[in-house]
Amino acid sequence: MLIQEASRSNIGMWGHYRETSSMYKRTPSRDNSNMDDVEENSDLLDNCLDKETSNPSWKLSLPHVLVATISSFLFGYHLGVVNEPLESISVDLGFSGNTLAEGLVVSICLGGALIGCLLSGWIADGVGRRRAFQLCALPMIIGASMSSATNNLFGMLVGRLFVGTGLGLGPPVASLYVTEVSPAFVRGTYGAFIQIATCLGLMGALFIGIPVKDISGWWRVCFWVSTIPAAILVLAMFFCAESPHWLYKQGRTAEAEAEFERLLGVSEAKFAVSELSKVERGDDTDAVKLSELVRGRHFKVVFIGSTLFALQQLSGINAVFYFSSTVFKSAGVPSDVANVCIGVANLAGSIVSMILMDKLGRKVLLFWSFFGMAISMILQATGASSLVSNLGAALYLSVGGMLMFVLTFALGAGPVPGLLLPEIFPSRIRAKAMAVCMSVHWVINFFIGLLFLRLLEKLGPQLLYSIFATFCMMAVIFVKRNVVETKGKSLHEIEIALLPQD
Hints:
single chain, 502 residues, mainly alpha, two-stranded antiparallel ribbon, 24 helices, disordered N terminus
């Protein structure tokens, strides 16, 4: 997986690491070591290890991962559920024509999501990953029920705020859980399931909303339907494995081994626990302070994680979603067909990403994903400029560039950051660092949604798309300089290699 090479200058060489794996000591800093050395040694060692070790069965952990991705499905569903029904909702609840109220119905989820996200690390560490999933589903059930039953704007807004809290809690916990329960050789593939589930949720919301213009009150059904997968998530989590990493941090070693047996098989469980025990626990049981993440010894790795999420949003992905219907309409394509095209491009890219994640590696996908997004934005900027005098050609560039942008985003920039960060963060700070980094995602997402139409009006599409293309190229450079491949590495190998010096 893409692992941040810039994490610490004391990265021990992967090769040296394998040769002395029985020691598992912190390796000394080498000032002349660089990312190429690390990756070259890592690749050589992979070839040797493939001959010496066998992988555990992926079938044991798959059901647990699939249950976890229900939260991602709900995330996508609730983000898209009001798009089609919003007009009907505003008429039925008496705020039709009030653009501020309509905007609040859509955006109040983001405020709730920020709250849920900020709390996610402390909840996941405090009650465990399984209960955190159940806690994220409960406000979704309550909020969706309130939204579907309300007869006024206030009830809708309160319901959407509840839903947003669950939305903010779900994604970081899903990334943590999938990373911690997956065998190393399929961790990237399983991580891509999160993006695929989100795409399916968005498309599910689209299809559920189709009858809304023909059937009075159908928008209430759209909200009610979401309570079904949320209830399934609550119930199914009772039967899923708890994260062995979390159990080990709690000092519950026997339970951690039992969960490893469920996830990896009996033959692999003892080795997995012994590997965990070789990582120096040090002050793992101490409380993680926020200051430790924002200016302490872990600042650099948290900074890189936050920057990846910031660049993901500043690339313009949500702006493209917001503006897609207008672009397609100008090309004579109905909005529902436009939404289907965007959804199919997103899903197709996510499926390809799932196939390639553990073959090409995370860094390759992330690098070329941002590069492809930059080219796509340039195409859209060209289509909006006076350089293209032919209206048909301009529309082809705009529509083609938009579909290419969504496709290339789904290849890497969409799924990789959420999978990468739980890998590169030490187990002690993993949950809370994820909460901090994903909070950056929600804040920038909010401002992009708030300011995009105003910037489009003031700057014009050509300049605005050029700015997005610039951010994409900045992301390409950032990935090249600060991310190193972690494909096939166990979380313990990664953590040991990146342990900061005390």
